[in-house]
Structures are given as structure tokens and as C-alpha cells.
Amino acid sequence: MRVALLTGGGDCPGLNAVIYAAVRKGINHYGDEFIGFLNGWRGVLDNNFIPLTLESTDGIQLRGGTILHSSRTNVKKVPGGIEKVQEVLKLNKIDALIALGGDDTQSVTLFLSENGVPSVGVPKTIDNDISGTDQTFGFDTAVMIATEAIDRIHTTADSHNRVIVVEVMGRDAGWIAYASGVAGGAHVILVPEQEIDIDHVCNLLKYNYDHGKHYGVVVVAEGCHLPEKGQIIDEGAKVDSFGHARLSGIGEALAEMIEKNTGFETRSVNLGHTQRGGVPTAYDRVLGQRYGLHAIDMVHEGKWGRIAVLKGLDITDITIKEAIATNRRLDQRFFDVIEDLEAKV
Ligand code: F6P
Questions:
Q1: CA–CA separation, 251 vs 234, rounded Å?
Q2: 140 C-alpha vs ligand 1 centroid, how far in Å?
Q3: Taking the model in full, what pTM does it have?
Q4: What are the tens digits of pLDDT across the range 188-240?
Q5: Which atom of ligand 1 is nearest to the CA of 10?
Q6: Spacing, Cα 305 to ligand 1 middle (Å)
Q7: Is 127 assigned a catalytic role?
Q8: Which of 11, 103, 104, 127 is an active site residue?
Q9: What is the 3-state secondary structure (H, E, C) of the chain?
Q10: pLDDT tens, 271-324?
Q11: Domains of the chain by range and CATH?
């Protein structure tokens, strides 16, 4: 078969591992040929691609980012977009498409598969919030990067007797805040699934100061809602073609509130895209390659409109419709972990 791959949406460590494994098994096991469209769905619309061979993908599973580059292009919003995609796939004699992306990218994959384009998905987001899969690749790396940053924040916050608020990614779900906050021993962990109670946050920090520890570390997910202010949006940034505003600045806004309410000197740091950069962890390299192997099997089994998922220890697949219907968010089990580890105030 002639198979095309693309990577859409925000990048994340492990994308190259998926590409590597799909190409390797496809060529060695099935005798496939591959191309990779560049810049997500934009590359399909522009007929912009590179050949993917055993040689050109050799060693990429170790590297971060995506050799195919990425964009947040929404084919559904482009007039004649679906026809153009069909035309380009026909022109290049493509038998199947593997799209690596989050719920936005997969909404396009679903739309295309419902319109006769043989396509399958691989779930991608460091936010780890795609339904039906226990974990997305890239999440483990993001948590490791955030945890290392929080470890470092402890010592400088301690030296200066300060509170430091660490803003991490997570638009709708607080998986990164939860995992890095717990791993990094944060005194306060704030996730978008729960309302922020400023008095409680300040009481937790005051507890430290009252008990001989004159500093505090707060981890907050970018998608949290502040009382009265709601989500903090970067007003200067454009809304993307899927309608998402850029979230940024909750750490700073929260730091101001904490300083005002407690009198403790407070700083903030936004880890931003450092969480998506650099080499994937060993776990993400393995997980990414397992997703890639399953994706090429799905192609040969004609599982159009389905997406690879991790269930327990197994890689299997579900419909894309199911995967993008809702976000997978933290629930009471995880709130309990946060609460049980908090100081009793
Ligand atoms: O891919 C998900 C994500 O990392 C979110 O956590 C974050 O809000 C967003 O992407 C940032 O997107 P961009 O790279 O386009 O600024």
C-alpha cells in the first residue's frame, strides 16, 4: 500500500517514535511505501510532502518534535478543503492516511473517513486528555520536565523565603499539574477540573510559614479558572482555526492574589513550551513506537475512522468519534490524592 502520515496540532515528544515504527513495520512487514505530508493538514492541501524511507527515518525515534512539522490547519474551515484533500491523495495514489494528532486533528480525520478517505488516527497530546486511552505519548516527558523544574523551584524559593507559582500546560484537564505537582512535592496543586478557592490556597501557604518552612511552591494548570477573572487568556494572541484562545498568565495573576492576601513575597514562572520540547523519555519512546506499530496494522485491517489507544498494558483501537466526544479529565480519585497530601488546615 502507499501510506501517508501527518502530524497536526501542538507537537510533543514521541511523534517521531510513532512515525519510525509505522514506517519500519510497514516497509519490512507489509512491503508498503510511505510519504509524510508536511505541516499537518496544511501539507495535504498544499500537496507538500517528503518520502519516508527506512533510511530517512533511521534514528528519529530518539528525537523530540516531529520531522514532519505541524500546524493547526482545520480542513473543515477551508472552502473546498475536503475535495482538495481527496484530489491530492488521489494524485499521489495514497491508499491510506495515518493522522497523528489531538482531538482537533482527529475531528478532521473523522470527517475525512466519513467522506470516503481511508484514514486512521493516533492520539497525541501532552495534556493526556483524549478519551478512551489511558495515556498519550509525550505526557510522561512533559511531567518529567515539569517535575525537574519544580525540584529546582523548591531550592530557590526556600533560599528567598518566597512563594513561587509554577504554571504548567493543560487546557481542559490537569494531568500535568497533578502528576508533576505530586512528584515534585508542591504544597498546592491546582487543576482546571476544580474551582480555585483562594482562601484555601493562602491557608495552605500560611501553614508552611507557621510551621517553620518559609516558602511555598504552587503548581497551577494554564486552564484553571480564577475566581471572578475566569481563565486567563493571552489577549494579544489570535484564536486558532479550531476556535481556541491562547491560555497564558494564570500563574502571574495567581501570584499577585497570593501576595496581596498573605503578604508573602510571591513570584511566578510559566514553563510553557519547554514542556513540549526536547527528547522523549524512554517510556514515551516505547509507547510512541507501540502506537505506530498498531496504526500500520489498523491500516492493513481497514479499520477506517478508528484510533489507536492504550488500555491497561495493551494497545488496541476505538472509534475516533468516541475518542473525541469528551475530554478525559481528572476525577475524585485524583482529587483525593491531592487533598490527602495537602497540609491539614
Ligand atoms: O497541545 C496542547 C497544548 O500544549 C496545550 O496544553 C496548550 O494550551 C497549547 O497546546 C499551546 O499551543 P501552541 O503551541 O499553539 O501555543
A1: 12
A2: 16
A3: 0.97
A4: 999 999 999 999 999 999 999 999 999 999 999 999 999 989 999 998 888 99
A5: 1
A6: 25
A7: yes
A8: 127
A9: CEEEEEECCCCCCCHHHHHHHHHHHHHHHHCCEEEEECCCHHHHHCCCEEEECCCCCCCHHHCCCCCCCCCCCCHHHCCCHHHHHHHHHHHCCCCEEEEEECHHHHHHHHHHHHCCCCEEEEECCCCCCECCCCCCCCHHHHHHHHHHHHHHHHHHHHHHCCEEEEEECCCCCCHHHHHHHHHCCCCEEECCCCCCCHHHHHHHHHHHHHCCCCCEEEEEECCCCECCCECCECCCCCCCCCCCCCECCHHHHHHHHHHHHHCCCEEEEECHHHHHCCCCCHHHHHHHHHHHHHHHHHHHCCCCCEEEEEECCEEEEEEHHHHHHCECCCCHHHHHHHHHHCCCC
A10: 999 999 999 999 999 999 999 999 999 999 999 999 999 999 999 999 999 999
A11: 2-137+280-323 (3.40.50.450), 140-276 (3.40.50.460)
Distance from the alpha carbon of residue 94 to the mean position of ligand 1, in angstroms: 30
